[in-house]
Each structure stands twice: as structure tokens, then as C-alpha cells.
Amino acid sequence: MSPVFHFGFLTALALLSITVSPVACWRPWRPQANATATPTDLLYGGSKKFEGSSEFVHLRYHMGPVLTSNITVHTIWYGTWQKSQKKIIREFINSISAPAASKGRPSVSGWWRTVQQYTDQTGANISHTVRLGEEKNDRFYSHGKSLTRLSIQSVIKSAVTARSKPLPINPKSGLYLLLTSADVYVQDFCGQVCGFHYFTFPSIVGYTLPYAWVGNSAKLCPGVCAYPFAVPEYIPGLKPLKSPNGDIGVDGMISVIGHEIAELATNPLVNAWYAGQDPSAPVEIADLCEGIYGTGGGGSYTGQMLEDRDGATYNMNGIRRRYLVQWVWNHLVNYCTGPNALDQ
Fold first, then answer.
1. What is the domain range of residue 240?
2. For the whole model, what pTM was predicted?
3. Where does the record locate the signal sequence feature (predicted)?
4. d(CA 122, CA 127)
5. 246-264 in b/e burial notation, b at 16+ Cβ within 10 A?
6. Which residue from 225, 155, 219 is spatially nearest to 195, judged by alpha carbons?
7. I need a labelling partner for 60 at 20 to 30 A (CA). Which of 14, 116, 178, 283 fits?
8. How many structural domains does the chain have?
9. For residue range 125-135, what is the model confidence (pLDDT) as tens digits?
């Protein structure tokens, strides 16, 4: 996700549900940012929508670094987390590099193969290997229950400079994933953003480290950030779909986490792969496919998804679980692709 993820209103949409796989449904739509830009808007930019259209997309490589070395995801659990919630997220991250044969198709690792197709200026591809690294728990809300974008960097600083078991400093192949629990509010959460990525400022953290933040929306705005497992209150008659792991907030986070990891790998310092003329407001490989989870997706339609025997909706298999993860842009064919495409 480019640093800002906008949300908006659903226009006269109805849920299309069927009793056998695949499953198709609608998603809420989102307006562009307010025309009056603030300094934060200019820094983090706006997510422009092209939704699977190749005619207007000009994704280019801007010669910056991408993550070609084995990628390690260092996780900061901020706030109160259940063991079961952590397990769902850990298994998703571990599924990115797992052999497809070990979990069945369509697979999370099949989704990652699209990301791997991106290269740096030497022709080296994004790493096949994504592994879970060190973890840090901040269960006492060291920076409070309301965070700004800059205080997020202070949380990361606390994690990498802690006296006891600090997270390792790994700017070349490390990703720092800050996950906030359902009782934590982050600047612009729900109204404009469910997650974003950027890099830390040496003046705050002491290092330039690619990082992402993703929030659990279960209490604050599940109809916005956990859609389609929850629906907006202002849309009567729209029924939510069943989540694959029985936790609406965390199942909603999974797609945002995948979105951010894909964009951190291809644009870690916001100077590699993106579309648009303004590097302060890049449109990245997952932005181009927001809301697309299957064949036929585009506009405000998710595309064809799958339904489990118990009625849960998903589109790819992990090692031991199933997940719903949005597709990403394939620059070789110039449209959004995913492992559950019907034409594969």
C-alpha cells in the first residue's frame, strides 16, 4: 500500500452470494483525498485507483533498491494480543515462502511469485525467501493508545534500542512490521488508512529502516478495514462474509499485511517501482489492485473468490490455514494477477 490508503462510500451495491465456490461479492468504494493537502498528505501521498486497467498504468522502475536478499520480517506486537491472533499472522508470513505442494493451490507462495518478478537495475529478482524474524512485545502501550505517524517511528526506535532483546538492525533485507491491537488508534486510521509503509528517519530512529504499520480494526471500523468480513453500518441489507480463521479483525489485517510486504519488497525507500510522476505520492504494485481478490475484479467488484466447506471465504491456502489476500500488479502482462485466477 502506498503510504495512504483511502476509503469511501458504497454506491447502490448489493452482495452477490452463492452457496458453492467460487464466491463473488462487492466491496466499499473510496473517494480521493481532500483537495486541501496538508504537509502529511504531501509526505505520504494519495492512493490513485486504476483497478486492473492497463491502458492508463505506467508503472516504472526508478533505479532505487529492492529487496533481493532473503527478507526477514521483524514484528512488533503493540498492545494486547491473543496467542491465537499472533498464530494466524505468523503462519501467513511463513506461508509466503513455503512450497506450494505443502499447502495446496491456490497458495500464498503462488501469490508471492508475482512480486518476485520485479527486479533491480542489475536484473536481480525480489527474493523468494520471506521468513519471520525476531519479535518484540509492547503489551504495556509504551507510547500510549493513540499514535501519530511519527510516534510510530518512536515505537520502532524503542524496539531496536531496547535494553533487553532489541530487534536486530537489518536495513538491507529486514522489514519492520508494527501491528497495533484493536484498542489502539493510529493517525488517520479508519477514515483514510488501514495500514501504510515508509522508512524510518535517522533523526528519530537512528537508522533508515523500511517499515509498515497495520492496525486491527475489530473495535474501531471493521466495516471499513475488515471488509468483506464486516460491512459498513450505513449500508442496510449488506451481509458480511464468513472469515476463514474466525477472527474478523485479524483476517481483515492479513490482506493489508500482504499488501504492505509486497510494496516494501518492490519499493522499500519509495524510489524503485511505482507509477505516477510524484515520488511523494507513489502508486505501487498493490495500490493498483486494491479490492481485487479474483478473476473479474475491478471497479467496485472483488472478483471470483472461493468458499470453504464451512462457508468461509478465501482465495489462497497457507501452510495450515486459508486467507483472503488482494492481488498485485504484474508488470510483465500489465494487469493484476493472483494464484486463484480462473484462466491459470
1. 23-31+42-337
2. 0.86
3. 1-25
4. 14
5. ebbbbbbbbbbbbbbbbbb
6. 225
7. 178
8. 1
9. 999 999 999 99
